[in-house]
Task: structure prediction
Amino acid sequence: MPSYRMRDAAELLGVSDDSLRRWADGGRLSTSTDAAGRRVIDGAELAEFARKNAAPVPEAGPTARESARNRFVGIVTRVVRDTVMAQVEMQCGPYRVVSLMSREAADDLGLEPGVTATASVKSTNVVVEVSSIPKGTSV
Result:
């Protein structure tokens, strides 16, 4: 099972190192010490914490100009395998991403709660939104 240094765990959760240390010191997360004497967090515990404490997804207000990114770095929070397929859930900041893949692919990638992974989204239909901007207004 992977473990994460405080800095890396904070980055995955989208918070500062100091916030994560305060949470650990306050008992919200347990830590241990690695061979080099650094504080680390167990990957499975970090995944559960990320899932339970994910910030709500912000409401999509009026869009000025935007095109969504297609790569989301996050932590695997759940993997459900059957004989042929696997459902992989990830927490990527405030976004929950679910992927269906072959069980073989999930096994080859070593996907399990606590593993850092990147969800790359590809689609034949990509929606780009632009709000109506009054003429003569620059953004």
Remarks:
- The CA atoms of residues 29 and 98 lie 25 Å apart.
- The chain has two domains: 3-52, 71-120.
